[in-house]
User: Which sequence fits this backbone?
């Protein structure tokens, strides 16, 4: 699966990083940066939590 970020939608809330710090980091302004775009199967659960945590629907998980 791929974890995709639409940076035009990211408002820097930082909520996505809490459930998935191994997949997402925040830049110095608090905007998300995807660290691992190809998510291994064992990381799917936290990736889905990160997607659900974003209030702006800036993250997507695609197969
Ligand atoms: S929760 Fe959404 S808007 Fe906030 S930093 Fe993460 S991707 Fe960006």
Assistant:
């Amino acid at each position: 699966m791929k974890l995709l970020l639409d940076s035009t939608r990211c408002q820097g809330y930082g909520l996505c990083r809490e459930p998935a710090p191994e997949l997402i980091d925040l830049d110095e302004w608090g905007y998300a940066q995807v660290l691992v775009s190809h998510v291994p199967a064992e990381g799917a659960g936290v990736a889905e939590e990160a997607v659900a945590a974003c209030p702006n629907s800036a993250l997507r998980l695609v197969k």
Observations:
- Residues 2-62 form a domain with the Alpha-Beta Plaits fold (CATH 3.30.70.20).
- The radius of gyration is 10 Å.
- The chain has one helix and four strands.
- The beta strands are 2-5, 24-26, 32-34, 59-62.
